[in-house]
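Good morning,

Both structures are done.
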Amino acid sequence: MEERVNHIIEEAVVKPQAPPPAPKKLSRFGRLITEVLGGEFLAYDWSRRQLNYIVFLAAVGVVYISNSYYAESIVRRIDDMNRELKELHYEYISSKSKVMNQSKQSVIIKKLENSGLKESVEPVRKIIANKKEQ
């Protein structure tokens, strides 16, 4: 028996090709951006004449950026130092209050009771020396 195979013959349909779409007209700014990013502006005479100025502007930009980073780092350091200063001030106040409390007469008397020292009951006398007698 013969095998029958159905063959589909495709006919090439030739469609007339439409002309490629016209490129969109870019605005003046769009063309400038395209030329700068593509590097085409470097081929112009005026850009070669202005190369020194372009390099100068790039250098000023780098200096400006580095200056802003430097200023930010200084501000961070100032904030850190202010925070540390506040902490030290609080520590100073705390230490001062402890010293004031420990230097009270009643606290000193309590600390010295075990050592055998006692508080003087006589009032303090002022000694006045005359210069003529010396």
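Second structure follows.
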Amino acid sequence: MLNLHKIVTFAALLAFINPAIGDTMAGQGYAPTPAPAFVQKPESYGSTISTKLGSGFSNIALCFLELPKNIINTTNDTNLAFGVTGGALKGLLHTIGRAMAGTVDTLTFPIPTVPITAPPFAWQDYKTETRYNPLFKFKD
């Protein structure tokens, strides 16, 4: 009768030896062929809901980043006076919107939908204006 120690030792030995045996072209490394750019691997359920939960929590915690983002972007698009006033107002509205969207995403994370905000995290793609996706748009 084999004991557990012998089985684990044998499995470890096979795992260690296997790459050496499987190398039929000595001296040449194996490089898998990359998939074409148009082929996308679908995300798993766990990956989808964890991204949604993470973006929901971060949107609640970091919604205030919309304020300086919109002040800077509005100032760059127009002038300093309108950037400070209009950008602050726009940033305040987006702060409220991102916090509310984060709350909805956090509460409904088991449903595999895309995050409501685009970009999903406040620090991503800082130069573009925040957009809001339709509620409960399912992943393709």
